[in-house]
Fold:
Amino acid sequence: ISPLILIDAFQIRRTCDQSLQMGPVESINSETTGNGRSVAYVYVATGVASIVSWTACAVKSLTYHPDATLEAICGFRHNALTIGQALAFPVPLAFAVIVALSKLSLALGGVPGSNFSVGDESSLSRTTFRRLNLGFAVCSLWLGASAAYMPAFSCGYQLYEPYFRVVTSAVHFTTALFCLGIWSRNTRDQNCVARLIRGVIGSIMNLMPRTVSDDPSTAEGSDGRNEYALCTLLFGWFAVMPVVSPFPRATVPSILGRRLSRAASGWTLLAAVTSYAIKDSIEKDICGGSDDRAMFTTLRQGLAFGSAAHLFIIALKLIGVDGGGLILPGNGLWQVYPMALAVPFTAILSCIMHFVSMFANKRLKS
Structure:
């Protein structure tokens, strides 16, 4: 059953029950609050299910290598590190987006229908709500497609049984449909496709900060807008690059090899959308309320924590935890990560991208 149907049923029942006891204004306000709470619960349920589904895909596809020769070289230690790499960035980011969407749903009343004003529609909170819904929906659609049609995303490898493909892809597709449904009902525009195209083009044209300064002592040069604009550009580029580039370059930035690198592009795209939302909030400088600040702080911290975890695992690999490297004896680094080492400039640029997201969060905190 579609989550939207469950929400509508709950909304109708709650409205009918409370309208018998309250006046018109109180009934509407209470119904809106209850609706927002219900939508927030569904966000948590579908979001956690998506994280569990991605975790299951990572464990299933990365526990062993389908090539017996490479499996003999890799071993358990390498597989465990690779699974950790697959979860290090997506899980904190996904949790941050889920929390932000849940908070925004409570603040905005979830599914307001058509009874909100143009001013409400253009507010930062509602714009962020729509933007994150679209980002999470596209991410979930990509993850669902990668689970359902794994060979198309992983150079012909098919490591999922039919039942596993059905369950994991259904989870991601359900999340995507729910987010798309909420997005479409939070806009006054009847032509959702046209609005989507205009919004995407407008966002691309607005990637650079509206007001910039090369003087770090000014507000424009020190409030983080430049850093998050750069994060948006880099995350957006690295979301597209693995899809259109051949291996070995396609393994960056996720460093997950042929089996899962292209599937992980969905999370990189969600990071780009999150970075853009943070940049937009800084530029508009209207998130003055404590709830708004807490919500954007959650997004910043989720992005930064995921980047830190991602870089930490890369550092372990470079040190040589996986059979040797730059410090520890052995040649494991060169044996099991040949693709990432074959494109050093691209790999270093992806690390810079994650470092910038950490630096921007630290700078805003200070």
Q: What stands out?
A: Residues 37-110+121-209+219-360 form one domain. The first helix runs from residue 3 to 19. The two ends are 47 Å apart (CA to CA).
